[in-house]
Amino acid sequence: MRILHTADWHLGHRLYNRDRSDEHRAALKWLLQTVASERVDVVIVAGDVFDVTNPSNQAKELYYEFLAGLRGTCCTAAVIVGGNHDSPSLLNAPRSLMKALQLHVVGAADTPAAERVVRIQCREQEVLIAAVPYLRERDLRTARFGETVEDRADALRTGIRDHFEEIATAAVAQRSHDAVPIVATGHLFAAGASDDEEKKSYIYQANEQNIEAGAFPGCFDYVALGHIHRAQRVGDQQHIRYAGSLVPLTFVEGQAARSVRIVDIGRAGEPVSSRKVPVPYARTLLRLRYELPEIKRRLAEAVRSDTVHTLTPWAEVRVLSDDPIPNLREKLLKHLRDVQAECGSETTIELIRISRERLTPHSAMNGHDPIQQQLDELDPLEVFSQLCARAQPSEEMATALRHDFLVLRDWINEEPA
């Protein structure tokens, strides 16, 4: 049986308040073509279908158009689980209708584990999918008065491990015979995984080290993970993998190819064959962080390139300079026009963000750097940490404050019960 493992679509995502719908539409069109050309039997989406819990109608339309498009391929079924960015009730709302179309949705872990084991029959082969979505704390445990941050993290780790053990036991019990393979999903930060430093995790559970690779039950022939946007295996386990995000969510992510994973699975216990399939970019994201002459050179190089862009390239420009540069945007736009006129290129580049960064360390004469970052360049945790540092709390107090902030942020981002 052939499975396509994808995750972290983040439909409805905006980059510096720019709409990404055209990029997502192109990526999902390519995904459908890949399902057809690779003769995929099952599609697994391992969480974060949407970027926010209340996505736009346009984002929902892209989602349903893709699922409808699967009916025109040889794909037998799809399994979609909720991520920390998703609204469980939104995903689950059409669950009964979608199940009749072999589209199995698990928005939250709010039902017994046995009910979240999906049996898929394709031709003469069968597979069981242990569908585990993002595990919220209320799904795992009840907080206790007086417990420390370390106690809570340990309890969460234990709860996550126990949850996977429970659904593994339920899956094994539902096997029609021992040769039926079991595939698990998950949306979490597994120990040993790494992600781009700029991509801040919204998962505070267990200090972002939710489960070790060796802690996944041995009956899982493949574990399809989401949440980390960089495609990778977990530890040295070839069968435990992140597929990576479908489109880059930041300019940092835009410097590396996005991907999905094609997984060929046979009988239970047999080695699983899988390979990474790069997702073509519909839009190039240029991240330029240099002194002004080098910035101009690289912009000119991008204009002169023969690359055919489906969508207008976007650029994030950070000029390294100790001195203010008057009319910086106008100077860069004129430079782009001059290069276009010189080489007759039709390539246009939209400068999404232009900022200046100090080239050399500043002297702390007045205690702060006059070069300020824009608010939308900062992560909420980073802002909180800076404010907390000004108060100079003890290390123990700083850890407790960070813990409480992350609890509150996670609660705000969750859908009300």
Automatic annotation (TrEMBL):
Superkingdom of origin organism: Bacteria
Keyword Nuclease: yes
Domain Nuclease SbcCD subunit D C-terminal: 283-390
Function per UniProt: SbcCD cleaves DNA hairpin structures. These structures can inhibit DNA replication and are intermediates in certain DNA recombination reactions. The complex acts as a 3'->5' double strand exonuclease that can open hairpins. It also has a 5' single-strand endonuclease activity.
Assembly, per entry: Heterodimer of SbcC and SbcD.
Family: Belongs to the SbcD family.
Name used for this protein in its record: Nuclease SbcCD subunit D
Organism: Neolewinella maritima
